[in-house]
Amino acid sequence: MKKIIHITLAAFALLLVTSGTVTAKESIASLRGTEDLEGKSLKVTKKKVISQEGGFERSYKQQPPMIPHKIDKYKINLKNNGCLKCHSKKNHKKEKAPMLGESHFLTRDGKKLEKVSSRRYFCNQCHAPQVDANPLVKNDFEGVK
Protein backbone atom coordinates (compact mmCIF):
# COMPACT_ATOMS: atom_id res chain seq x y z
CA MET A 1 0.00 0.00 0.00
CA LYS A 2 2.84 2.42 0.90
CA LYS A 3 4.51 1.63 -2.41
CA ILE A 4 1.38 2.62 -4.38
CA ILE A 5 1.11 5.90 -2.44
CA HIS A 6 4.80 6.71 -3.12
CA ILE A 7 4.45 5.93 -6.84
CA THR A 8 1.28 8.07 -7.05
CA LEU A 9 2.96 11.01 -5.28
CA ALA A 10 6.04 10.71 -7.51
CA ALA A 11 3.87 10.68 -10.66
CA PHE A 12 1.92 13.70 -9.41
CA ALA A 13 5.15 15.60 -8.65
CA LEU A 14 6.52 14.75 -12.11
CA LEU A 15 3.28 15.99 -13.67
CA LEU A 16 3.52 19.29 -11.77
CA VAL A 17 7.15 19.84 -12.77
CA THR A 18 6.58 19.13 -16.48
CA SER A 19 3.38 21.21 -16.69
CA GLY A 20 5.24 24.16 -15.10
CA THR A 21 7.96 23.84 -17.74
CA VAL A 22 5.45 23.92 -20.58
CA THR A 23 3.68 27.04 -19.28
CA ALA A 24 6.99 28.81 -18.61
CA LYS A 25 7.88 28.57 -22.34
CA GLU A 26 4.55 30.06 -23.44
CA SER A 27 4.47 33.82 -23.87
CA ILE A 28 2.29 35.71 -21.43
CA ALA A 29 0.58 38.84 -22.70
CA SER A 30 0.30 41.66 -20.16
CA LEU A 31 0.43 45.45 -20.04
CA ARG A 32 4.19 45.03 -20.18
CA GLY A 33 3.84 43.20 -23.51
CA THR A 34 5.64 39.92 -24.06
CA GLU A 35 8.78 41.05 -22.20
CA ASP A 36 10.24 38.51 -19.81
CA LEU A 37 9.28 39.41 -16.24
CA GLU A 38 12.80 38.60 -15.07
CA GLY A 39 14.40 40.66 -17.86
CA LYS A 40 15.10 44.36 -17.90
CA SER A 41 12.10 46.58 -18.50
CA LEU A 42 11.93 49.03 -21.36
CA LYS A 43 12.95 52.59 -20.62
CA VAL A 44 9.96 54.59 -19.42
CA THR A 45 9.16 57.53 -21.65
CA LYS A 46 8.54 60.75 -19.79
CA LYS A 47 5.09 62.19 -20.49
CA LYS A 48 4.24 65.88 -20.76
CA VAL A 49 2.24 67.20 -17.80
CA ILE A 50 -0.98 68.88 -18.90
CA SER A 51 -1.46 72.38 -17.51
CA GLN A 52 -5.06 73.49 -17.64
CA GLU A 53 -6.33 76.89 -16.53
CA GLY A 54 -9.26 76.44 -14.13
CA GLY A 55 -8.52 72.77 -13.46
CA PHE A 56 -10.05 69.55 -14.73
CA GLU A 57 -13.72 68.59 -14.67
CA ARG A 58 -14.47 65.97 -12.02
CA SER A 59 -15.89 62.60 -13.00
CA TYR A 60 -17.94 62.07 -9.84
CA LYS A 61 -19.19 64.10 -6.88
CA GLN A 62 -16.57 63.27 -4.20
CA GLN A 63 -13.57 63.02 -6.55
CA PRO A 64 -10.46 64.84 -5.31
CA PRO A 65 -9.52 67.54 -7.84
CA MET A 66 -6.70 66.64 -10.20
CA ILE A 67 -3.65 68.93 -10.21
CA PRO A 68 -3.69 71.18 -13.32
CA HIS A 69 0.04 72.07 -13.26
CA LYS A 70 3.52 70.58 -12.81
CA ILE A 71 4.56 69.52 -9.31
CA ASP A 72 7.84 67.72 -9.96
CA LYS A 73 9.88 70.36 -8.11
CA TYR A 74 7.54 70.46 -5.08
CA LYS A 75 8.75 68.93 -1.84
CA ILE A 76 6.26 67.28 0.47
CA ASN A 77 7.78 65.88 3.64
CA LEU A 78 7.22 66.23 7.39
CA LYS A 79 8.78 69.71 7.49
CA ASN A 80 7.74 71.20 4.13
CA ASN A 81 4.73 71.07 1.82
CA GLY A 82 5.20 72.96 -1.47
CA CYS A 83 1.45 72.88 -2.20
CA LEU A 84 0.67 75.04 0.83
CA LYS A 85 2.71 77.94 -0.56
CA CYS A 86 -0.25 78.66 -2.85
CA HIS A 87 -3.24 76.71 -1.51
CA SER A 88 -3.16 77.54 2.23
CA LYS A 89 -5.77 79.73 3.95
CA LYS A 90 -3.11 82.41 4.30
CA ASN A 91 -1.83 82.51 0.69
CA HIS A 92 -4.57 81.30 -1.66
CA LYS A 93 -6.08 84.75 -2.42
CA LYS A 94 -2.70 86.37 -3.06
CA GLU A 95 -1.67 83.44 -5.32
CA LYS A 96 -5.10 83.25 -7.03
CA ALA A 97 -5.26 79.54 -6.25
CA PRO A 98 -8.13 77.49 -4.82
CA MET A 99 -7.96 77.07 -1.04
CA LEU A 100 -7.79 73.63 0.49
CA GLY A 101 -11.23 72.18 1.16
CA GLU A 102 -12.68 72.51 4.66
CA SER A 103 -12.38 68.72 5.04
CA HIS A 104 -8.58 69.19 5.14
CA PHE A 105 -8.94 71.07 8.45
CA LEU A 106 -10.95 68.39 10.31
CA THR A 107 -9.81 65.65 12.64
CA ARG A 108 -11.10 62.11 12.29
CA ASP A 109 -13.72 63.00 14.90
CA GLY A 110 -14.87 66.13 13.01
CA LYS A 111 -13.13 68.68 15.26
CA LYS A 112 -12.03 71.83 13.37
CA LEU A 113 -8.30 72.62 13.28
CA GLU A 114 -6.41 75.83 12.48
CA LYS A 115 -3.75 73.96 10.46
CA VAL A 116 -4.09 71.21 7.88
CA SER A 117 -4.89 67.84 9.42
CA SER A 118 -1.98 65.41 9.43
CA ARG A 119 -4.31 62.97 7.64
CA ARG A 120 -4.59 65.41 4.69
CA TYR A 121 -1.04 66.84 4.67
CA PHE A 122 0.44 64.61 1.94
CA CYS A 123 -1.52 66.01 -1.01
CA ASN A 124 -0.44 63.58 -3.70
CA GLN A 125 -2.03 60.66 -1.88
CA CYS A 126 -5.33 61.84 -3.40
CA HIS A 127 -4.46 64.54 -5.93
CA ALA A 128 -2.39 63.85 -9.05
CA PRO A 129 -1.10 65.82 -12.02
CA GLN A 130 -2.38 64.70 -15.42
CA VAL A 131 -0.19 63.69 -18.34
CA ASP A 132 -0.70 63.44 -22.07
CA ALA A 133 -0.75 59.64 -22.37
CA ASN A 134 -2.85 57.03 -24.11
CA PRO A 135 -4.73 54.66 -21.80
CA LEU A 136 -3.06 51.29 -21.22
CA VAL A 137 -6.38 49.47 -21.61
CA LYS A 138 -9.67 50.32 -23.31
CA ASN A 139 -11.91 52.24 -20.92
CA ASP A 140 -15.60 53.06 -21.47
CA PHE A 141 -16.04 54.91 -18.16
CA GLU A 142 -18.26 57.98 -18.37
CA GLY A 143 -18.32 60.35 -15.45
CA VAL A 144 -21.38 62.02 -13.98
CA LYS A 145 -22.20 65.25 -15.80
From TrEMBL:
Q: Name one GO biological process term.
A: anaerobic respiration
Q: Where does this one sit in the cell?
A: Periplasm
Q: How is it modified after translation?
A: Binds 2 heme C groups per subunit.
Q: How does it assemble?
A: Component of the periplasmic nitrate reductase NapAB complex composed of NapA and NapB.
The Gene Ontology CC terms held by the record are: periplasmic space
Q: This chain belongs to which protein, by name?
A: Periplasmic nitrate reductase, electron transfer subunit
Keywords on record = Electron transport, Heme, Iron, Metal-binding, Periplasm, Signal, Transport
> Residue span of the signal peptide, if any?
1-24
